[in-house]
Design goal:
single chain, 31% strand, globular, 2 helices, glutathione-dependent formaldehyde- activating enzyme (gfa), mainly beta, three-stranded antiparallel beta sheet
């Protein structure tokens, strides 16, 4: 998955985002690595929708700039991804791998502007609800979890 302009070429502008109530604000100071639509049951229950759209950040590029004290994290304890959200309004902010904390993905809906990338894959398509099937958009589909670590290492 290729990302937009690198921070070294002078074309990348820092991305900003926030929760719904504005208590939690963040920035990303490097281009995003890729984006996926997740159809897992956990994302469905967490969002109340059919899927969530998440973008993978480069290691160390994501920073909470305001509201760290109201940012809470749900840790499912099953080796899955930990979910961080604003405790005031409930807005989802990011997710981190319990097995590899260097893997941090943010919720694209929390971004203020165009991140310069579009979703590139569907993951956990096995769990797509009958009332909203995965669209036939030509993107690759993974029945279970996409291995984000291969994107980090380029393997």
């Amino acid at each position: 998955m290729e990302s937009p302009a690198s921070p070294d070429d002078g074309e990348f502008a820092t991305l900003t985002g926030a929760c719904m109530c504005g208590a939690v604000k963040f920035e990303v100071d490097a281009p995003l690595l890729g984006a996926a639509m997740c159809w897992c049951k956990r994302c469905q229950r967490r969002t109340g929708t059919a899927f969530s759209t998440t973008a993978l950040t480069r290691m160390g590029s994501f920073k909470i700039t305001e509201g760290d004290e109201v940012l809470h994290t749900y840790e499912p304890g099953d080796g899955g991804f930990n979910k961080s959200f604003c405790s005031n309004c409930g807005s989802q902010i990011c997710t981190t791998s319990a097995d590899n904390p260097d893997i941090l993905a943010l919720r694209m809906g929390a971004l203020d502007g165009d991140p310069g990338i579009r979703p590139q894959v569907h993951q956990f398509v096995t769990y797509a609800p009958e009332w909203y099937p995965v669209p036939d958009d030509g993107l690759p589909r993974f029945p279970e979890r996409l291995d984000w670590s291969t994107i980090l290492t380029g393997d």
